[in-house]
Every structure is written in structure tokens, then in C-alpha cells.
Amino acid sequence: MGHRAQGNYKLLGTYSWYVPDVAGMFLLLALLLVGTVLGSLLASPFLKIYGQEGGMEYATLISYPVMFIPPMIYAAIKSRSNSLKYQGLKLDSNHVTPLGWPLACLMVMLATLSTSLIAEPINALLPEMPEWLEETLGGLTGGNFWFNFLCVSIFAPFFEEWLCRGMVLRGLLGRKVKPFWAIIISAAFFALIHMNPWQAVPAFILGALFGYIYYRTGSLKLTMLMHFTNNTFALIIGHIESLSDYETWQDLLGQMYWIYFGVAVLIVALVMLAFKKIPLMRKSGNCDLLPSVLSDVDPI
Question: Does residue 104 lie in a domain region?
């Protein structure tokens, strides 16, 4: 019992015994909005001191992680209470056999970059992005590199994957929602928290890919790596001055774009087929089961 209780207080293990249903998913979203307001209040002094342009990086650095504090506190309290009487479901498992970690990591990174390329023609159907939003997003990828790296490449993959895959998708799978619909709903949730269609469309497409990989492996580490890959690639591209005149990959690649598009589709298909070879422990996916802290019964 002592060993299991100790595991309950590990960072991701803290949340293993809270498996939210659909109502819990919306409650987490509401708490995220509360955190957004709280983060804005805490960040506002920096905007007043340094101005809108000079203080935005500091404000974002503070407000972004703060917005996740209310849902994380709530989920931790619920999990610790549930751990005394209910079975848990790990947020982060390690089912990558027969691929192995090096190959699995390489494949998901390639699939992520390929999916970003595939999503571009769909995003092109949207109306032109408002200037204020374009400037805001440009500041996240074209401002101070290290401030942006911390927010975009470290904070976003950790917190958003914790919420969208670790809580929402794991909760839906654990509540016996059919895997296809669980992946689609969690991808829609991922799109929703981006709060605008120009980010939501690629977020939904990427979220579906992230969700499939999580379903097959149970690994939050892999989806965090995928999220990191997408965001860091965009960050690096945003700091290459020679590419600043190109708004899309189609602008940059010209007629060759559709050749790359075809290659990207093939890469994603092959990666999904490769991960399909990972045996499923249960129809609901490969998140490992955990016993109640007070139980002496091994996970089934």
C-alpha cells in the first residue's frame, strides 16, 4: 500500500484516479476559462508598466501557465479522493512495442510535420485572418526567441497535452466512449481552446493524429513530443528572415507543393499503419490500469 500511495503523488500520477466524463470535460473547460481570467489579472501590471508591445511577452509568460492552475488543482483533488476507492487509469504509459522508442519518436515527429503540411489547403479556405490576431500570433513565433520557446515549445505541449489527451481523451476512453468518437471529441476540444478558427482548424487535424497515437500507446510523452515538434518548427520558421515574405508553404514551394503534399499523406498513412501494429490491451486503448491505493489487487 505504501508504494502505491507514493506513486499517487508523482506529477502525472497525481491525476490517474480522476477519469472525467463528458460533464467533467466541460467543468475542466469552465475552470480553464476561470484560469484565463486569473492569468489576465496577474499579467495586467506588466502591460501597464512596459506597454502593450514591451509587456506582452512577460504577460504571456505569466498568464499562460496560470490559466491551467484551476483545472489542475480540481483534477488533483478529485484524483486523490477517488484513489481511495476507485481504479485509476494512467496518464502516461509506454506501449511502443514492436516499434521501440527511437523509431516511434522519429515516426511521430515526421507524421506531425506532414500533417501540418496537409492541413494548409483546408486552412486556406478560411477568410483572411484579422490583423490584430495576425500580429498576436506573429508575436508568439517572431518575438524574443527564448520567451517564445518557453511558452510555445515547453508550456503549450505540457499543459495542453495534459488537458486534451491526458484528461479529456483518457476520460472519454475510460468511460467507454468508442475510440473513434473519443478521438474526434478530444480533437474538437483541442480546437476549441485555441479560441479562433485559424488555429482551430489545424489544431483539430493535429489533435486527431495526437489522439490516435495516444490511443495506441497511452503515451503522453509521445504526444508532448509531437506538440513540441509542431510548435518549435513554427517558431524556428518564424525567426528565419528569408522566409518572412512567404505566408504559406504553397507560396514557398509553388507547384512542387502538391508533390510534397502527396508525400506527406503517404508518410502519415504509413505511420498510422505502423502504430496499428501495437497490440491493444483493451478496446478502450493502451492506458494502463491502476488499482485503488487501498487495494492489494494488481491492475487487471
Answer: yes
Structural domain tally of the chain? Answer: 1
| pLDDT value, residue 5 | 41
Q: Give domain status of residue 296, yes or no.
A: no
Model pLDDT for residues 175-194, shown as the tens digit of each residue: 999 999 999 999 999 999 99
124 exposure class (CB count in 10 Å sphere: 0-12, 13-18, 19+): exposed
Which grid cell is 158? Answer: 505540457
Residue 96: inside a domain: yes
Is 264 part of a structural domain of the chain? Answer: yes
Residues β-bridged to residue 289? 89
